Amino acid sequence: MDIDILFRIAAIGILVTVISQLLTRAGRDDIATLATISGLVVVMVMVVNMIAELFNSIRAMFAL
Description:
Layout: H1 3-25, H2 29-61
Helix pairs in contact: 1-2
């Protein structure tokens, strides 16, 4: 695991937080919620890809 992926996840978190706060202060709570959910989905896709790579590595290691 590279440290780069952690920085990407942190950057997405910071960006989503700023966008959500701006939209909330503008009175657009529904869009702020959608932005937060979108950020969560993006991060979850990244994590699922990392888990898939882990399982592929384990499969290759044990020649399954």
